[in-house]
Design goal:
Layout: H1 5-17, H2 24-31, H3 48-65, H4 70-102, H5 104-121, H6 127-134, H7 138-155, H8 165-174, H9 186-194, H10 211-237, H11 242-250, H12 252-255, H13 262-298, H14 318-322, H15 330-337, H16 342-348
Helix pairs in contact: 3-4, 4-13, 5-7, 7-8, 7-10, 9-10
Amino acid sequence: MPASEAQIRANQANAARSTGPRTEAGKAISRQNSLKHGMSGGGVVMHRNDLDEIERRVEAFETDLKPCSPVGLVLIRRMATLSVKMETSTRQEFFAQAKQVRHAVDDFDEARLDEADDLYETLGENLRKNLRKLRKSPEGVDRMIEAWTLLRADLTRDPKPYWTARHLQDAANLVGLSIDHVRNTRLGALARGVIGDFAELSDADGGSLDEKGRREWSVRQLIARIDREIAELEEHRLTLDFETIELDRAEAGERALFDSSKEATLARRYESEAQRHFFKALNEFRKVEAECLERAANEPTPPPMPPPPPRLGSSRDPRVAASPSYESGPISRDLNLMGHDRRGEFDRISPEPPPRMPG
């Protein structure tokens, strides 16, 4: 049902009000909504703890390397970011590996069960190969016994057996036959007799019985056949090499030390990429800083500025310096007694004596 004009306008109004985060802090948080590990990309979206560590390393690198150029400062931040990425990747790989080791035994058992289920589910696609693999493991044998047991349960269901073409196909596959090749076999004849098709049965196979009696006879014979198959599988299970299986199970933790999972593989790749780019940035930093120092060394040194001329009457005025009353005399003694600096007072006293008044 198409939306009405009023609904369309209401949806547009709601969309206009929903503009997402507006502040820089809100946008920064929103950028981390889909953050998984922050190790790929250029480091724009990273964990807050990693950002704090990057800033700390920027300060430490600047103190240690003492860049003299703006490009050096940029490369220092780049190296700080890459060094954090390297360590984050290493931690990710370690945690993934530790988890795999902790669950190695359980994963070993689960993998064997999954393999048995997969082999049985695809049994009709490759009968010989899958049956051979199923019979080589306790889990595979147990899966076959379970399948025969389910067929037996359907045959003995009250008030009458539940038996279809699917049951016949499963029984045929369990003995290594396809649905087409099970015809004209003892198993196929009994399976068809359960549903009232006695064409492949001989007169000796309950031929003197009525239809109901002959179907019941077929059910009993088929149950006996299933019981023989189950007994054979249980006997075969006892011949399997359980000692080797337990040894493999005990060594599962050691094998898990090499983690081939997707998470660990990505962590190793990110660590390798960060390490490669870190040393590339370090080489670029050394080159840029060497060029900066070379330019500074080749720049001409400006000549020293000449000293300003002495002020008249100052301590640097040669006339004052040559005056014997500058270092001693009644004026100097009087100023010393008053607690004044002699040189400062001489700066304010004219070296020329005042003119004598007539009379």
